[in-house]
Design goal:
single chain, binds nicotinamide-adenine-dinucleotide, 434 residues, 6-stranded parallel β-sheet, alpha/beta
């Protein structure tokens, strides 16, 4: 099938590459011309395990093509996916201007029937706005339809999630749209949930808000464990063994971040408000998440007393492992808090340092290290903010020998407290006795 992707970020590039790999003829368009130049050259602007190889392979076969021509892009696809960003506005609502702009682009260049599919995460009833925008901007009467196909991929596992999703949700209002989307996803073996459009839109927001709620829940249990002298990891493990609860998203730590959970929780709260529904639980979920940084800072101060002129290494900048995405990463807030108290920082992350350098360029208080061991040399504490495997498997004896004072403040509970202490460290995990 002929498919066009509008917006080539984490979702758009993955979708474009995945659809080409299962045999479709895909054209990707983005307003960012630098991105198109890179992509044409086979260079992915994002880090995503497994993506580079698939991108190159499908560029070579010609199944995947990138263009900065709106007309070429829109005329190509019978199915057009909108994968543009939907960031938060100051009031918490979703900023849908990129989606509107994409709809206008389609309306301007549409040449025959198109199924326009919103893949971006959007508030319920956005499809109606896309349809209205299309009608207002159409140059001549041409048939089209709007459908919803929310994306559930996880950064760091996006390629796997494309080929093996837990489910594919499609929100449609006609058999024709359903047939087209069934045909498109035929090679993917996953349960297909077909709903009306409003339901599909709510499924995505509800899923993300629920996962964020799980994280905030376990983080409150984490605080209770710390106060009462219990171990949150064991509590979570035993809770998760109950199939009704499930073990995922029960990891206590410094909270959720990224480009999705924070904005989607806020957006769903706002949607509720618009309908007169006070979804209080979501307010608490956000507040608990924000308070995680205070808890981490409390641990750091318990370990170091004053932060002024203390040399601290940070391992992990991305909001989670296996991605270079630092949008809403807890590390951004932690760095600011330490710099505000005149601490001195050396940062290390396997792939996200170039992104962080745009927010915090090097200066006399803040350095970036070339490798994880160099980062801890002569430091008074090591702060762990992302649970990358290389940190889990670090040679801690070497770390101990390099540091000035052997202190680890672990925001992600990646080590066994007994083992770390045996190596001579003072260890400050989350939600358990240090
Ligand atoms: N990143 C994730 O893990 C993830 C997962 C599921 C769903 N989503 C949702 O998918 C959507 C996209 O997320 P993302 O992380 O890929 O965003 P992103 O910011 O990485 O990418 C958005 C892209 O759209 C482009 N763009 C903006 N306006 C455009 C326009 N008018 N025409 C063409 N291109 C335009 C931007 O240049 C950018 O490349 C969001 O709604 C997000 O909530 C994201």
């Amino acid at each position: 099938m002929k498919v066009t992707i509008i917006g080539l970020g984490y979702v758009g590039i993955t979708t474009a590459t995945g659809l080409a790999e299962i045999g479709h003829e895909v054209k990707g368009y983005d307003i960012d011309e630098d991105k198109i130049i890179k992509l044409k050259d086979g260079k992915s602007p994002i880090y995503e395990p497994g993506l580079d190889e698939l991108l190159l392979k499908n560029l070579k076969t010609g199944k995947l093509v990138f263009t900065s021509s709106k007309q070429e892009a829109i005329e190509h696809g019978d199915i057009i996916f909108i994968c543009t960003g939907t960031p938060s506005r100051i009031d918490g609502s979703a900023d849908l201007s990129q989606v509107e702009d994409a709809a206008k682009t389609v309306a301007k260049h549409i040449n025959n029937f198109k199924l326009i599919v919103e893949k971006s995460t959007v508030p319920v009833k956005t499809a109606q706005w896309i349809e209205r925008t299309m009608r207002l901007h159409l140059k001549r009467p041409i048939d089209f339809e709007v459908a919803s196909n929310p994306e559930f991929l996880k950064e760091g596992e996006a390629i796997r999630d494309f080929f093996k999703p837990d489910r594919i949700v499609i929100g449609v209002k006609s058999k024709r749209a359903e047939r087209l989307l069934r045909e498109l996803y035929k090679p993917i073996k996953a349960p297909l949930v077909v709903t009306d459009i409003n339901t599909a839109e709510i499924i995505k927001h509800a899923s993300n808000a629920f996962l964020a709620t799980k994280i905030s829940f376990i983080n409150m249990i984490s605080d209770l464990c710390e106060m009462a002298g219990a171990d949150v990891d064991l509590v979570a493990k035993a809770m998760g063994m109950d199939k009704r609860i499930g073990k995922r998203f029960l990891k206590a730590g410094i909270g959720y971040g990224g480009s999705c959970f924070p904005k989607d929780v806020k957006a769903l709260y706002f949607v509720g408000k618009q309908y007169g529904l006070d979804f209080k639980l979501l307010k608490d979920v956000q507040e608990i998440n924000e308070s995680r940084i205070d808890t981490l800072m409390k641990h750091l101060k318990k370990a170091l007393w004053n932060l002024k002129d203390k040399h601290i290494a940070i391992w992990g900048l991305s909001f989670k492992p296996n991605t270079d995405d630092i949008r809403e990463a807890p590390s951004i807030k932690v760095i600011k808090r330490i710099l505000d108290e005149k601490g001195r920082l050396t940062l290390y992350d396997p792939v996200a340092m170039h992104n962080m350098q745009r927010i915090y360029p090097e200066n006399m208080f803040l350095h970036y290290a070339k490798d994880m061991y160099q980062s801890v040399k002569d430091k008074e504490a090591l702060l762990i903010l992302t649970e990358w495997d290389i940190f889990k498997n670090a040679d801690l004896e070497k770390v101990r020998s390099l540091m000035q004072t052997p202190i680890i403040v672990d925001g992600r509970n990646i080590y066994n407290p007994k083992k770390v202490k045996k190596l001579g460290f003072e260890y400050y995990p989350m939600g358990k006795m240090s």
